[in-house]
Amino acid sequence: MGKINRCERKIKYLILGAGVSGLSFANNVRNQDYLILEKNSEPGGYCRSTVRGDYVWDYAGHFFHFSRPDLKKRFREVLQSDDIVYRQKNTKIFYNGQYVDYPFQKNIHQLEKQEMIECLCDLFEKHEKENYDSFLDMLYGKFGVSITEKFLKPYNEKLYACNLNLLDVEAMGRFFPYANLSEIIQNMRKSNNDSYNNDFLYPKEGAAVFVRHLLNGLNPDLVHLGEEVRSIDIDQKTVVTESNTYHYDYLISSLPLNCFIRLIGKENLLEEHPLSFNQVLVLNLGFDKPSIDRDIHWIYIPSPDTNFYRAGFYNNIIGSEKLSMYIEIGYGMEEIITSEIIEQQLEQTLDNLHRLGIIQDHKLVDWQALVMSPAYVHITKDSNQFVKQLMNELSEHQIYTIGRYGQWKYCSIEDCMVDAAEVSKRI
Ligand SMILES: Cc1cc2nc3c(=O)[nH]c(=O)nc-3n(C[C@H](O)[C@H](O)[C@H](O)COP(=O)(O)OP(=O)(O)OC[C@H]3O[C@@H](n4cnc5c(N)ncnc54)[C@H](O)[C@@H]3O)c2cc1C
What number does CATH give the domain 7-56+69-79+205-273+379-426? Predict the structure, then answer.
């Protein structure tokens, strides 16, 4: 057997992963010595899109909502105005055979009378606490039994695919739509369902358009696609792939933190601090006819009788003709999503779409299944402390983990870009 000649290279900034986080970091050091290693043959990570026939699909809807005006301005500048749509979010909850505005807790007045009375009475009788033990404890404490058990608990259990007592109170951070009693009562008179993603921008050709713009600022030779990281030696400051060994000054990783820990040979840490997460099976569906409702952007479905927790309407968002949907189905981290399971889920989804009145005599023309794993990380009390401590230790070795999965948190594309910029400034 001949020995493979490994190439050795020295890089100042070695960046792992060509998703939004890795590409944003690279843009911040683009005039210096950098290199990105990406295992997939395509860049973008979860911001990849598929354009097939009449349909444009993402890894579940990837909409751009910016809290920072400078980033929003930049997004608008880099994309032609004809290529992007700007939407005021219109989302609904499908609850007990009717649509209710999102968030549920602020729209209980839209429920049937008896249901509304139950929610309202429990809201007055809730037991608020100074400190909550878990996310579920917080839901009961802040919203009472009925709101929690009619929507918040079943919906989040479907999404996170775990017992909600596992999750930290702040598991969803700024993304959780809190509302106090007076806001709930006021909403009955005058509707105000404002949230972090009240309005959003979206490229008509999918989220990948934005990734292409991030790539424009980079030298394509410095984005190594199809090059998977196999191991990392943090003392020797080397990264090994199938045929190369890289020596770095700074290592910037957007890889899921659990994978990164294994790559640095510290899997024993995961026994003490298991970093759990859910997986999301995304079904992208293209039909032959327009949607029945032309205005809704996406819906939330708390009922355990329906296999999916969220479904979105690309065609209503980009203004295209034929019904084009994404369906999100939550799974636990250990579950193996086989092709048989995917076929069964597709069948169930079509039945449920009929039952919900979303399709009638629509014919499925094309479809695609994608698995996001990890999708939503489980933020627990332990994971928060562990990740913070680990990141501190790694920074002493000039290693910085960035992004939603690198820092094991709940965040948006914008947050990933901001983090990447901050780390580059800090270094
Ligand atoms: C269901 C769902 C819906 C979402 N919707 C929105 C939304 O509407 N708006 C929004 O702002 N955000 C949304 N997000 C969040 C958004 O997807 C993330 O914040 C963002 O895409 C994360 O980018 P990243 O670059 O940090 O990670 P990733 O996109 O995961 O990129 C990491 C990269 O590392 C690569 N990699 C992994 N292992 C290796 C290895 N060993 N060697 C080399 N490369 C490797 C991967 O292939 C990948 O390309 C959503 C997330 C989910 C789960």
Answer: 3.50.50.60
